[in-house]
Specification:
By secondary structure, the chain is an alpha+beta fold. The protein has a single domain, classed as Sandwich (Jelly Rolls), CATH 2.60.120.10. It has three helices and eleven strands; from the N terminus they run αβββββββββββαα. A six-stranded antiparallel beta sheet has the order 6-5-8-3-10-11. Strands 1-2-9-4-7 form a five-stranded antiparallel beta sheet, with no helix packed on it. A hairpin with a 6-residue loop joins strand 5 and strand 6. The longest helix has 20 residues, at 2-21. The termini are far apart.
Length: 161
């Protein structure tokens, strides 16, 4: 009985020791006014982003994104789950699975699953937070769902510019 108790207790003890040894992360703050917005070559020119937390090449991240009215991020998918939280403006999210387009307004939240083919349209100027569960990537697809390079997906007519 004692042996069974020790066998069951050791993993719990190890977990407690590791958890206690880790110091809590400090609170992070980033003022929107100090955010530096940039264009990324793999995204439409009508969209700018400011990294709020994380490293887009290495892991989970939070991005503050701005879209000009009429901006479209064409059909694409990501390797990791993505979440959008609308701060201002109006947008529209569409999934290629045939579900109805979803109108998005301030305060709205949308979850986009791994490899779920979707597109986003800014009905008006939009500001939103984008949260990704891993490194940022974007895989554009043609109408049939076949992957295409960014320069084939992003054209001035499609990006609203």
């Amino acid at each position: 009985m004692l042996r069974k108790w020790i066998t069951l207790s050791l993993p719990l003890l190890a977990f407690c020791l590791v958890s206690a040894a880790q110091a809590p992360a400090p609170m992070a703050y980033k003022a929107a006014a100090s955010s530096k917005f940039i264009n990324l070559p793999v995204l439409p020119a009508c969209m700018t982003v400011a990294i709020q937390e994380g490293d887009p090449a290495k892991g989970p991240l939070v991005v503050l994104a701005r879209f000009e009215a009429g901006c479209v991020v064409p059909w694409h998918w990501h390797t990791f789950d993505e979440r959008l939280l609308i701060v201002s403006g109006a947008g529209k999210a569409e999934m290629k699975d045939g579900s109805a387009p979803i109108p998005l307004h301030p305060g709205d939240y949308i979850f986009l699953p791994v490899k779920g083919i979707h597109q986003f349209t800014a009905v008006s100027s939009v500001e939103l937070f984008l949260l990704a569960d891993g490194p940022f990537d974007i895989h554009y697809v043609d109408p049939s769902g076949k992957e295409i390079p960014a320069d084939k997906a992003i054209t001035p007519a499609k990006s609203g510019v």
